[in-house]
Amino acid sequence: MKKTTTLMSGLLAAALIASVASTAQANDSIIDEVRVGLLNHEISLLRSATQEDGVDVNAEVLFNEIVWLDWAGSPRPHVGATIATRDDATSFIYTGLTWDYNFWGPLFVEGSFGFALHDGQTGISKVRNELGCTWNFHESASLGYDVTEAHRVMLTFEHISNASLCSENEGLSNLGVRYGYKF
């Protein structure tokens, strides 16, 4: 059942991004960029074995920067989804703010912070990561390259956890590549 739900969610996300992209291109929109990518689910830098693995599909929409937040580095709001392709892996939707900085020609770094809502395990589990709370913090960092003014690629690391606000807090970390189209 979850495979069907995951597939339908992925198709819905792809259709939504295609719709957003065509609308934003046709109009002078509030949408600044759309992204899609593939992420290695639950890559762990601190332990050798993980309870979840597989490939995730990531889709994200970034909006124009918030003018009244110029004092905070002009972040762009975003909404996104990371959809697991395996039945026994956690998927989530997220929102927050993204900051980016071009540091050398077409190279840029980016960071984001916000919140995620997941469908994973909140209690003790032997087969899935124990995420404690249904709502978690979502952070990501990317190293990217502007191929053209409109096309960009990036290596992205993302993480969700509850910062020990709930009893369980194994967190979940993904690493992969994404493509972005800027309007």
Q: How would you portray this structure in words?
A:
The protein has 183 residues and is mostly beta strands. It has a single domain (2-182), classed as Porin (Beta Barrel). The protein is 14% helix and 48% strand. It contains 1 helix and 8 strands; from the N terminus they run αββββββββ. It has one helix at 2-26; strands at 31-40, 55-63, 76-84, 92-104, 107-118, 135-146, 151-161, 172-182. A hairpin with a 7-residue loop joins strand 3 (76-84) and strand 4 (92-104). It is globular, with a radius of gyration of 17 Å.
Offer a few descriptive terms:
Porin; mainly beta; 14% helix; single chain; 8 strands
What is the topology, as strand order, of the major beta sheet?
1-2-3-4-5-6-7-8
Classify the secondary structure makeup into a structural class. mainly beta
Count of the separate structural domains: 1
Q: Give me the strand/helix succession.
A: HEEEEEEEE
Helix content: 10-25%
Would you count the extended β strands for me? 8
Strands, helices and their partners?
Layout: H1 2-26, E1 31-40, E2 55-63, E3 76-84, E4 92-104, E5 107-118, E6 135-146, E7 151-161, E8 172-182
Antiparallel strand pairs: 1-2, 1-8, 2-3, 3-4, 4-5, 5-6, 6-7, 7-8
In short:
This protein is mainly beta and 183 residues long. It is built from one helix and eight strands. The chain has one domain: Porin (Beta Barrel), CATH 2.40.160.20.
